[in-house]
Amino acid sequence: MYFNEEFETLPRPALEALQLKRLQVVVERVYANVPFYKDSFDKAGLKPADVRSLEDLQRFPFTTKQNMRDSYPYGLFAAPLEEVVRIHASSGTTGKPTVVGYTQKDIETWSELMARSFMAAGAHRGDIIHNAYGYGLFTGGLGAHYGAERLGASVIPISGGNTKRQIMIMQDFGSTVLTCTPSYSLFMAEEASAAGIDFKKLKLRIGIFGAEPWSEAMRGEIEAKLNLSAIDIYGLSEIMGPGVAIECIEAKKGLHIWEDHFIPEIIDPATGLRLPDGELGELVITTITKQGIPLIRYRTRDITSITYEPCVCGRTHARINRMCGRSDDMLIIRGVNVFPSQIESILVGIEGVEPHYLLIVDRKDNLDTLEVHVEVDEGIFSDEIKILQLLSKRIEKEIKDVLGITCTAKLVEPKTLQRSEGKATRVIDKRKF
Ligand code: DLL
């Protein structure tokens, strides 16, 4: 079922023709309205008229998060503030937040793309959407909210926090769709089970999880514990917010990126050159319909691959694979590149180990060290020391076998690692560079 069948199933030639037309308009628009783009195109010796085909996009310079920071807060806006009806910001780990502005038309587009995303995930009118993404400057809460309303579903704007109350509301209001971060969904499952509430008795059918990396193994864990079908949703504030790409419930294999509004590219983060389909690299996105803050070739830092193969759901839009990390989250431990999600997949695959973990990276005597703190289930923790020792040895061995790095596994008691109602912290890097 589609929300906008015509656009979601546009044959590729028509989709690409539309992309080109929209790309030409947006490039003109930023060149005329945003001094940063005028300078950067001029420096590259390019004029808007140089966009004659979609291939020409590759000749244009990238936009980075640093460029956005340098123009804090409104420098990259292409619309006057009088036309901006909403402002969001994403908190970075360093310095000032990244600020984005939406015109009324941007809000309408976002709502439609979120409504399309809900429908692709299997939600529809009549659903009760329990929206536990945070409301505020973060785009998750309001983005999902407007999309749910546009879909015609009933949205519960619960936001994050007060987990006990969340569970009561889900139970009493008969929520059928849950939207929150994947880590928070597991926390909810834990709290419910501690309160003697069985998720299997709730009416939840679908969970739409994103805003942080998670693994296929974690999907299995969530589906089993919450008794629902877990769908991966991707987005970022700079490009729009949630709903840039989503898995369809029919295939659950790759996230359709709404190509009538975004042009995706996968590049080698080191050389900046485009990579062939299917190869892992950094996702770069050009927004082709945004008015408030259109971005040309924005480097997301998210690592994925792309496929244009047809999907069983009938949507013609390309699919990006589950994110396997960010180029700036990638840890280099004794020269080996590791994404936290790779360690997560290993941990979740080991019986008795819970999907709550923290990686602590440090440097001792000029050598990198990795400690993997991970919770184990109650039963195991109360077992003999010997069993615990065997389990930590097994974790260390599997990480060594799969990733080639030596680590120390520290098993901790259930519920001792910090929980988050939003994005979880998975890594503490104590090394000084
Ligand atoms: O996290 C928007 C969002 C809200 C997406 C709700 C999905 C659901 P930011 O706070 O700007 O926006 O963070 C964006 O989060 O560049 C990725 O690194 C990461 N991220 C988002 N979705 C996923 C996902 C929102 N499904 C950053 N898998 C992005 C992995 C994700 N990482």
TrEMBL record:
Biological process annotations from GO = phenylacetate catabolic process
The UniProt record lists the EC number as 6.2.1.30
Recorded source organism is Oryzomonas rubra
Q: Which CDD domains match?
A: PaaK
Q: Which SUPFAM superfamilies match?
A: Acetyl-CoA synthetase-like
- Pathway in which the depicted protein is active: Aromatic compound metabolism; phenylacetate degradation
> Which positions carry the signal peptide feature in this UniProt record?
none
Name listed for the protein in its UniProt record: Phenylacetate-coenzyme A ligase
Task: List keywords of the entry alphabetically.
Answer: Ligase, Nucleotide-binding
InterPro entries named in the record: Adenylate-forming_Reductase, AMP-bd_C_sf, AMP-dep_Lig_C, AMP-dep_synth/lig_dom, ANL_N_sf, PA_CoA_ligase
Q: Which residues form the AMP-dependent ligase C-terminal domain?
A: 335-431
Q: Where in this chain does the record put each AMP-dependent synthetase/ligase domain? A: 80-286
Provide a Gene Ontology MF annotation, just one: phenylacetate-CoA ligase activity
Q: Which reaction does it catalyse?
A: 2-phenylacetate + ATP + CoA = phenylacetyl-CoA + AMP + diphosphate
* Superkingdom as given in the UniProt entry: Bacteria
Function of the molecule? Catalyzes the activation of phenylacetic acid (PA) to phenylacetyl-CoA (PA-CoA).
Similarity comment text for this entry: Belongs to the phenylacetyl-CoA ligase family.
Starting at the broadest rank, the lineage of the source organism is: Bacteria, Pseudomonadati, Thermodesulfobacteriota, Desulfuromonadia, Geobacterales
Q: How does it assemble?
A: Monomer.
